[in-house]
Amino acid sequence: MGRRGFLAGLSALAVSGCVATPKPEAPKVVEPPKPRRVVPPMYYAMPNERFPIPEVDVSHLEERWWRKDVDYPTSERKGTLIVDTPNRYLYHVTGPNRATRYGIGVGRDGFSWAGRAIMAYRREWPRWTPPNEMVARRPELEPYSIANGGMPPGLRNPLGARALYIHLNGRDTLYRIHGTPEPWSIGKAVSSGCIRLINQDVIHLHDNVRDGSPIVVIPDPKMQHLLVS
């Protein structure tokens, strides 16, 4: 090969080398995993309960609904339960202008209520007996009717781990404050008039409230209500 051919070959190699060099790829951006929300000790599992209660999945329970001791100006006496239906909170008055606040689920439109009554008594792991009116609307509940003795206690029971029974003038109103294993339902209007708390919270309330305590339910102006007083 002559000098001219040799130089031409080098030139071709140089040009072809520039063309063939791949463009470096931009580094891939790897999204860091979202941190798992830390479960506070008050929502840990409760393995020593009659029916062991699992840890609360706080990814389905916004922090604003978590149990908390708060300032709460009120003229109601210590021990009173105040259900703030519009804002989805239950307050247990613990002292002058102080209360323990719980996030709650409330009755859906048409089955909500408001007024003054008495929290007559409490039950651990209660049986659930849907009233006859509910059975008439939902015939599939007939096996749990009053006549059939209700649903046995357990994690699938709609009343959850505890129930507080609300009376007016010495008579059962059929409304309850009770537990639920469904944290996603807190802050919503989902039940048939009852007030629901996650099981860990209703156990805490059950252990700190006293039979005969007054209860005040603030009406939600956006919903229809049965006034019990």
Q: What's the topology here?
A:
Layout: H1 3-20, E1 68-71, E2 81-84, E3 89-95, E4 98-103, E5 106-107, E6 112-124, H2 132-137, E7 162-168, E8 171-180, E9 189-191, E10 195-198, H3 199-208, E11 213-218, E12 225-227
Pathway: Cell wall biogenesis; peptidoglycan biosynthesis
Active site: 178, 194
Pfam families: YkuD (PF03734)
Give an overview of the whole structure.
This protein is α/β, with parallel strands linked by helices. The protein has a domain at 63-125 and 160-227: Beta Barrel (L,D-transpeptidase catalytic domain-like), CATH 2.40.440.10. 15% of the residues lie in helices and 30% in strands. The chain has 3 helices and 12 strands, in the order αββββββαββββαββ. A hairpin with a 2-residue loop joins strand 3 (89-95) and strand 4 (98-103). The chain is globular and about 80 Å long.
Mean pLDDT: 86
Strand fraction equals 25-35%
User: How many beta strands in the DSSP annotation?
Assistant: 12
CATH homology superfamily of the domain at 63-125 and 160-227: L,D-transpeptidase catalytic domain-like
Structural class: alpha/beta
Listing every helix as H and every strand as E from the N terminus to the C terminus, the arrangement reads HEEEEEEHEEEEHEE
> Could you describe the largest sheet, including whether it forms a barrel?
10 strands, mixed
In DSSP terms (H or I, runs of 4 or more residues), the helix count works out at 3
- Reading off the top of the CATH hierarchy, the class of the domain at 63-125 and 160-227 is best stated as Mainly Beta
The CATH architecture classification of the domain at 63-125 and 160-227 is Beta Barrel
